[in-house]
Specification:
Layout: E1 3-7, E2 10-14, E3 24-33, E4 36-41, E5 47-51, E6 55-60, E7 63-64, E8 83-88, H1 92-95, E9 97-106, E10 109-120, E11 123-132, E12 144-149, E13 155-159, E14 178-182, E15 204-207, E16 212-218, E17 223-228, E18 235-240, E19 276-278, E20 284-290, E21 301-306, E22 311-318, E23 321-322, E24 326-328, E25 336-341, E26 347-351, E27 356-363
Antiparallel strand pairs: 1-2, 2-3, 3-27, 4-5, 5-6, 6-7, 8-9, 9-10, 10-11, 12-13, 13-14, 14-15, 16-17, 17-18, 18-19, 20-21, 21-22, 22-23, 22-24, 25-26, 26-27
Length: about 375
Amino acid sequence: MKRYALLCGLLLAATTAGAQGPIYVVDTLAEGLDHPWSLEFLPDGRQLVTERAGRLRMIENGTLVKEPVDGVPPVMATGQGGLFEVLADPRFGDNQTLYLSFADGTPDANRTRVISARLEGRRLRDVRTIFAAEPTKRGGAHFGGRMTFLADGTLVIGLGDGFNYRDEAQNLQNHFGKIVRINRDGSVPADNPFLNRKDARPEIYSLGHRNVQGIAFDRAGGRLYAHEHGPKGGDEVNRIEPGKNYGWPLITYGVDYSGAQISPYTERPGLEQPLLHWTPSIAPAGMALYRGDEFPAWRGSLIVTALAAQKAQRVPIDGDRIGTQETLFAELKQRLRQVRVDADGVVYLLTDDSQGKVLRVRAASRKP
């Protein structure tokens, strides 16, 4: 059985002799953030944090800068909408370029938009749109917004089905319920799977998703993983391959929030099966693939943060093979929006709250 002690403002999570799992210490790096959504590390040691309300914040020398970064475009912070991901360009040291995803528009006509911009001091300059989901939709739900880079430097963006538009996740003529892939200047890669089809949007990389909330690229194995919210049940982790159809809403392990059946099928020919699903739902929200040195026992695992379940799941993964899951951070009793891992293997968590925090997770054995 695990035991926990609160010591000098640090939460120490220890394991008894013979118990499996890591020993870690959690401390607060920053607090007072309005529903923080994404964290990014810069080469000079600074961190950037997005607040869903539309602010981009900076952490310098372990301290949250009071004033937000200037120049962020207006966002639609309604419902699940707001400012989502921040990513640094793979060549940030040379070009100081960032990428931001956010909900753009009005409650009656909105979409997920991605911009690139140059970070100059504490201001964004040369802001330009490189992707805007088509068409616009009504309502404030299911925007997706997670992004990552593939080995070739292309940018993949997870999108949502707009909640009330779920059947459109099977329609290649729009971006609802898709993962898209673009070059960093917004152009379409020449090897995208639907590029030469007149009935398809050329940016589409995969289809049949509900609401992509976590995405991670395994550079060692060359694999792209994504997870998505199910309805009531049926949260999924998938290995994403170009051109594949992941089934929503034709197949699902969940039911509607009312309890009504969405589909009688959990599998059908030509539709991909998830690597795993959580039923009942945990409401997955972020994901990282752990390859660090801080926690050797976690290497080769996906770490998936959850909102409703207020925990993270460590999912050992080898290609398409899933190992025995382990629950992490449940003792925090926090909705966990995002997880990131720095170059040393230290883990960072974002709590989803109006007074949200950036938490840092280190091995208890680490010397001060």
